[in-house]
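Hi W., the magnesium ion complex you wanted:
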Amino acid sequence: MALDDAFEVIDKRFHRYAIHNAHIDHLWTGARWAEGPVYVPAGRFLLFSDIPNDRTLRYDETTGTVAVFDQPAWNANGHTLDLEGRMVACEHRGRAVTRIGHHGRREILADRFEGKRLNSPNDVVVHSDGAVWFTDPTYGIDSEYEGDAAESEIGASNVYRIDPSTGAVTAAITDMVRPNGLAFSPDGRILYVADTGISHVGRACPPDIRAYPMNADGSTPAGGYSTFATCTNGVFDGFRVDATGNIWTSAGDGVHCYADDGTLIGKIRLPEVVANVEFGGIKRNRLYICATTSLFAVYLNTRAATSAAG
Ligand code: MG
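Structure:
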């Protein structure tokens, strides 16, 4: 049987990840800008954001239905789970990174850096040591559309780390224009970060994913970076790393898959601009795709990188 037409094989390495009788599931439409998906294995559901409509939605994998999980939702954007399986959210309007505790209440993990309010946290990942890493571009304060318009107090868009024992917030990466999606390599030794600063400074900021090597204990970047990939259609926004180190990233024409050597090996072409992806399903081998108004999914012959939460 032929591959679904949506799959585009660019490098033969991509063949092993595409399942020949799988197809793209168009699960739901109705968002204004779908973003921030996180799969919650214990509940078999996917939470995702509809940022301009200020709501968090829940796709129930057992019934196939989408319902409102939270509205208003602080114009939440990126989500992840921490090592205890608690949901961590980046809030544009809250200008904070928050967590829903086991008691069900919202707790603020970070809303300031050196006394100044954060811009509008965008995406978040948890290192295996428990530290929460997040990006803080200005998209949620640039206009009233995805948050409350405001001037940046910090005057820069950085990547921050929240220390797992002290809660202290440090600026870990300060040389980007608008850091956006981020993820660690499976061994935790590389932090990948997308820069979408082309939205503010044009081609002076190419739409790259950078690779920042980490120190041995994974708590700080070792210094310097390399350009991992430059987007060939639109920009890289959110992305995920699979168990073998491939990066599955959002792009203008669908999902792009990069091998860990930075080669674009294949695409999943979709009719809407993709903002973010997440591995879900019991085996974590189903890629959920937030694409502008719609939620798509496809089973792949790979799975999420192992983490304590998933
Ligand atoms: Mg983003």
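The mean pLDDT is 96.

W.
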